[in-house]
Structures are given as structure tokens and as C-alpha cells.
Amino acid sequence: MASAAIASSSSSFINQRRNDVGLSSFSPNTSFYLSNAKKKMVSKNIVSVMAPQSQRTPSTTGSVKTGMTMTEKILARASEKPQLSPGENVWVNVDILMTHDVCGPGSIGIFKKEFGQNAKVWDREKLVIIPDHYIFTKDERANRNVDILRDFCNEQNIKYFYDINDLGNFKANPDYKGVCHVALAQEGHCRPGEVLLGTDSHTCTAGAFGQFATGIGNTDAGFVLGTGKLLLKVPPTLRFVMDGEMPDYLLAKDLILQIIGEISVSGATYKSMEFVGSTVESLSMEERMTLCNMVVEAGGKNGVIPADATTYKYLEDKTSLPYEALYSDEKARFLSEYRFDISKLEPLVAKPHSPDNRALARECKDVKIDRVYIGSCTGGKTEDFLAAAKVFLASGKKVKVPTFLVPATQKVWMDVYSLPVPGSGGKTCSQIFEEAGCDTPASPSCGACLGGPKDTYARMNEAQVCVSTTNRNFPGRMGHKEGQIYLASPYTAAASALTGYVTDPREFLQ
Amino acid sequence: MAAATFSSLHHNISISSSPNKPHHSLTSPNLIKFPSSQSINRSSLISKPTLSPIPTRTRAAADDFTAPATAFHGVCYVVGDNIDTDQIIPAEYLTLVPSNPDEYKRLGSFALIGLPMAAYPTRFMSPGEFTSQYSILIGGDNFGCGSSREHAPVALGAAGVKAVVAESYARIFFRNSVSTGEVYPLESEKRLCEECKTGDVITIELGESLLINHTSGKEYKLKPVGDVGPVIEAGGIFAYARKAGMIPSRAV
Could you tell me which residue ranges the Aconitase A/isopropylmalate dehydratase small subunit swivel domain spans (chain B) (predicted)? Predict the structure, then answer.
């Protein structure tokens, strides 16, 4: 299909009407497009944007099958339909439902109210309950909420409950994992071709495994608990083709910040985002998770990356359950296709107060900062800490601002203390962090990513400027309404910690 | 516009059927200040009260019959673009469990407390109150973006908000509003967050897809709700599924 070439000048615009072929679940009856009033500047890194396609005409005889996208295929299989098109509402069979301590108690309350106090969940092996948000706190209600989860799991004999009892020493809790989205992957609950729903917007992270994964609320979760089904609307798909060799100063966080900056925080609303291309294929599973994790920051319903050898290798020792990957047909219809030459991309940040407030890191070098935070489902995985350690190691200097490290899971925490950093002569991340003057890596949890109770470790309790590897920088996100958050990759976060200003990591990596 | 004009308006006002959810603020006998500085009794705006079309999770049962409302009327609170869930209900209050009636009520007291003071000097909630004087919320683009926390529409519903009118919605907030029946999510054709001001008196006529700003005297078309209509009319996902025969009626 011909692509409408876009000049690579900074004054180029995407100015096309998006002929939506269907909106996402329970969407208002609206057509979303970039109107003349909302022209969006296109960066030099976009090569082209595919022209919108005409609405598909479903076959009346059933003898002709229209090509389907990966998301459409997964939902078709889950709804036991041979064919689906964007805009169709279908009852979908859910493979995994995940909930945590913030939304679990409410979901359980709704389940019991609607299905009865003695009702049983639809499948005790398809429910995964992961306390992770407000764990290491003295907040009584937060602690009570974990108790509610525990009581429910005992009552229902839930197989996958990653409990914590001893809050003083997380290592004394072998079942405790930490951040749900990273734990889901590490524990083998993410499988190609499946439908995973979670009471958390960043459930879309699991799309990195070639599955349909999206966030839902308590009421929908309560419904799934009792039925194993949910009514979903099939989304149209935006395709993002990323080619070019990834420079060694970039991480997946830069790629997704580039995309969000390009299409805006509402650019993928009610839509699926599919990531393909040689750059994507070169990414590790953890980096792919970063890419899919922030799909929701563009408004996306879900993000998907086709499963490949990298996916299968990761899953080898994680799950013994059978799965079948699905892929977009050659003749699948995409709402739009964006092409990027990643070799030309530079390190990015999202300035306050929106994830689409994109800027080059080097353009923000005069921004004085008060702290750095490395953690969360977005930027607290093993490879994120290895990346930060690489910058600290290259500089040989000490940090100039408090630098907080919150490993996502217990496994990540152990990796931080045991894995040697390449080129360090056998030093671990923890040793390098200590030498650089960072705070001691904290107990694994969501931590200050979303503020939380007042005693949450590293919460922003005053109006400070923070460079963070997390996912959102709306006002108040990390605790203080007047705080300013610059979203960045672990490379950029570490570089900024070393200078006390927002800093391009190339200052230390080249 | 003279207050007399308002007293002759006859619109159906939705009244919550929940014993736990506070009644819509317009049903109280308190007085509203209108632009003319004259005051009229709020109850004179009500000709034929109907039960809320939006059963809340604190209701006795999700399959109770409720007659659909035809209109909402009240004072509006106006916010801008990208009002995310952290501004609607900051994370420190997420320890409150919405399905617990007492905690549901408390969530209302924190609704929109995350809005920055500088940008929103007029606060949505008065200190110490559980419900707001503003029953209609008007927003810009991408309203409710961010987390999937259902606490967001719940906090608004608990605070007495009946309808949200935005230029566009983030998917999960829209879906949660529909699934729970906490607030009625509507989309405007015009950018109403730049047309209306906090404190304006608004009527939303659902049948005509019309928003009337009595303070400015202007009328605006709203977009049709589309294929989500049956779920909204049923009162949420549980009521819809029961009506469709997918799940059995609740044993009371």
C-alpha cells in the first residue's frame, strides 16, 4: 500500500481524516481524526504515514474472509467467531484476570454482591492476585486491603496469590513478587494469543507477548470473576513500523516517548497499537514490555508485538501451558501506519505535565532537578537497572541529587544484587549504585510511581523536580500537586542524577 | 436571565434510589443563586422526579427496575483537557474500597481534590462536605485519562455528579462510567469547556441530545451515545447482562 510521503522538515503536518472503522469498548459514537484545528507536527524521525483506508465491507456470503489484524484474530478466537471487524461488540472468554490490592477488594465486593456471598469464581486457576501497590506502609486501610485479598484467596482456593505477611522483610515472603505487570511475565502468566484483563491500566504491558491485554475497572472485573467473560468492542489498529539500528544510547522508553509525542496522549484512544519492524524484533522481552506498557499513555486500548523466537525463548522456563500465537494477515486493514527510522532518534524526555510533552533531553539541559527515581513497571525491570548502572559505571562519578531505586519485583531485586554489569569487572548493579551514592535499592513494589500513602518510600511530599523512569507525569502523580516530573529512560535518568540537571546520556556513553 | 424564567422550567431531575448514595443536590430545599442574584427554591425546578437511570454499586440490587431519566439539571463545574484519574481522585485515597458504603461516601469527599490550586482556585468540594454543589461536570479533551481505577467515576458519582460532558474521553474512564452507572458520560460537539464557566446553570435534555446553558442563554448539541446506549439505559454491565439473559437475576 502506498504511503503518503512526508517531508522530513519540522514544519510537516499530518493532515488526514482518519476514517475510523470502529471504536473501542463502550466508546461514544464518534469518529476520531486530526482536524485542521488540531494539526500535529511530525518529527524528522517519521518517514511516512500511510493514508487512511476505506471502511471494510463484510462479506455477505461468508465465503470471502477479510484479512484480520492480530488483535482482531485474538478477540475472534476468544469470542468463538470466525471473523471480526472493528466496531463489533463481542462477549470474550478471558484467559487470565489479574487484580491487586488497590482494585481487588472492590472487585471482590462487587462479585459477592452480584453473584452472592458464597459464589465461586469462574476458574480458580485463571485468577492471578498480586499485592503490589501499597505494601510497605503503616496505612491501616492499605494493610487491611491485602488482608481482604488473602481471605478471599483462602476462601476460593485461588492458585496464584502472591502473598506478603512480613512487611518488615520482604525476602521472608517467598511468594511475594512485587509489581503485577512484571510479575505476570516472570511467573509465566503472559502467553501469546491469549486474553489477559487486569484492574490496572498498565495491563497492556503483556501485549509484548503477542496477546490481547487491557485494563478494566472493578465492576468489569467483578463480572469476569463470576462469568469468565466480558463484553468488548473490537478496536481498529494503528501500526507502528520501526526500522533502523538502535543507537546504544537509546532504550525502548525513548521509542514510546517518541510515538506518544507524535500522536498525543489521546492519539490512540479506542485503538490497538501494533509494533513491528527490525528495531522491534531486536528488542529483548523486557524492552518490548516497556514499549507496550505506555500504550495507555497514548490512550490505546491495547498494544501488541508479534511473538517470535525471543518470545518463545523467554517463555521456555516460565510456562508449560500450551499456547498458539496469532499474527496479522498480510491483507489486514490498519487504520494508519507510522514508519520511523530509529537510527536517527535522540534521547527524549516528556516534560511536565503530560506524557506527550516530548522534548530532546539535550534541549532541557538547563532544567535543574531535585531527585531521580528509577523504578515501576515501566522502568524498574532488571535491564532498566543494568542500563542505569552502565551510565554510572561509565562516569565514575557520584550522583548530585537523591537517587531512589525501586526494583519492580523480588526477582529484579535479586538481580540487582547478583548479576554482574557487563564491562564492570564483575561488579553488580548494587555495588555500582552504592559507589555512585544512590539510595539503597528499596523493597519491590509500585512505590512512589503513583504517590500512594504519605509514608510511601520516595513519595514526592514537596514541590520538587524529578526525573523518573515511570509512566505518567500529570499533576500530583508522584504525590505532590505542584511537583514536576520529567519522564525519561533509565539512561537519561542516571545521567541526570550525575549532573543535577536533565542530561542527555550521550555525555557519559560516548 | 430572570429567575422567574427558571421557575417556569419543567425538567425531570434524577433522584438517586440508593439509600447509601446521597440524593442529587438539586432535590434539597436549599437555594441556588442565579445570575440575576435572585434566589428560587430548587424544588420549583422539579416537575416530575424520576428514579435515577444510573444504579450505583451501593444499590440493593443491580437488577432493580429504574425508569430512565430524560434530563439532568444543575450547576456545572468546568475543567480543561487531560484531566487524569490522579486529579479526579489522588492515589493516596485509593485505599478506600468503593463497594463499602461508608468508604464510597468518603470517596466523594475527595473528588477532584487533585486539581492544582493555581489552575482551579474555585474548588469542586467544600471542606468537610461529602457532596458537591456541582452536579454537572464539563471537561475538555481526553477526560479521565490515566489509571483504570474505578474510584474515579465512583468518586464523582458519590460526590453527587450526575453527568459528565466532555469533548472526548479516555477509554477506561468512559467504560467504567458505563459499566458502573455512576455518572452519565456525554460528548459535546463544541468545546464546551471554553463555552461554559464554573457556576453556570445547565440543563441536559437527553432525548434531544441538547445542553442548555441558562446562564449564557446558549444551547449546544451533544453527540449521540451510540451503541453503548442499551448498557447505559439498563443501568450498567450487570443489569445489561441480566436483561440479555446472560446471567441470572440476583437472589435477593
Answer: 136-187
**In sequence order, which residues have a C-beta less than 8 Å from that of residue B138 and are 6 or more positions away?**
B76, B77, B78, B79, B164, B165, B166, B188, B192, B193, B196, B202
Residue of A nearest to B86 (CA): A477
Three-state SS at A343: helix
Yes or no, beta carbons of A452 and B91 under 8 Å apart: yes
| CATH number belonging to the domain at A92-232, selected among 3.40.190.80, 3.90.1150.10, 3.30.499.10, 3.30.450.40 | 3.30.499.10
| A52-90 confidence digits (pLDDT tens) | 444 444 444 444 557 999 999 999 999 999 989 999 999
- Alpha carbon B98 to chain centroid distance? 17
Closest in B114, B172, B187 to A217, CB measured = B172
Grid cell for residue A322 = 500450551
Residue B13 neighbours by CB under 8 Å, 6+ apart: B24, B26, B27, B45, B46, B49, B50, B69, B71, B72, B73
Contacts of B86 in chain A (CB under 8 A): 450-451, 472, 474-477
pLDDT tens by residue, B141-154: 999 999 998 999 99
CB contact residues (below 8 A), chain A span 271-310, against chain B: 296, 299, 301
- Do the Cβ atoms of B125 and B89 come closer than 8 Å? no
**What pLDDT, on the 0 to 100 scale, is given for residue B251?**
58
SS3 call for A210: coil
What residues of chain A lie within 8 A of the CB of B164, using their CB?
none
Cα separation, A18 vs A54, in Å, equals 10
Pairwise CA distance, residues B96 & A109, whole Å:
12
The helix (run of H) or strand (run of E) holding residue B135 is strand B134-138
In this structure, the number of other CB atoms found within 10 A of the CB of residue B137 comes to 27
Backbone region of residue A500 per phi and psi (left: phi > 0; alpha: psi in -120 to 50; beta: other values): left
According to the model, what pLDDT value does residue A482 have? 84
Chain B hits for A354, CB-CB cut-off 8 Å, are 82
Residue whose C-alpha cell reads 504517590 in the numeric block = A451
Shortest Cα–Cα distance, A84 to chain B (Å): 17
Of B168, B128, B207, B188, give the one whose Cα is nearest residue A27.
B168
CA distances to A73, A281, A367, A484 from A476, in Å:
39, 36, 19, 8
Summarised one tens digit per residue, pLDDT across range B174-187 is: 999 999 999 999 99
Residue A197's nearest CA partner among A183, A173, A179, A181 is A181
Q: Which of residues 443-482 of A touch B (CB under 8 A)?
A: 450-454, 472, 474-477, 479, 481-482
> Does the pLDDT value for residue B104 go beyond 60?
yes
Go through the domains of chain B in sequence order and give each one's CATH number.
3-243 (3.20.19.10)
List CB contacts (< 8 A) between B238 and chain A: 114, 219, 223
Q: Please tell me the CATH code under which domain A351-509 is placed.
A: 3.30.499.10
Please report the pLDDT score of residue B61 as a whole number. 43
Interface-testing mutation among A218, A232, A271, A473, with chain B (most B C-beta atoms within 10 A):
A218
Q: Which residue in the set B145, B178, B226 is minimally distant from A265, CB to CB? A: B145
List all residues of chain A from 136 to 155 with a beta carbon under 8 Å from chain B: 139, 141-142, 145, 148
Q: Are A473 and A453 in contact (CB under 8 A)?
A: no
Where are chain A's structural domains? 92-232, 351-509
Positive or negative torsion for Cα B98, B99, B100, B104 = positive
Pairing outcome for strands A302-304 and A272-276: parallel
CA distance A93 to A106: 22
Query: Shortest Cα distance from A85 to chain B (angstroms)?
Result: 15
Cell numbers placing A434: 552504592
User: Residue B228: its pLDDT value, please?
Assistant: 87
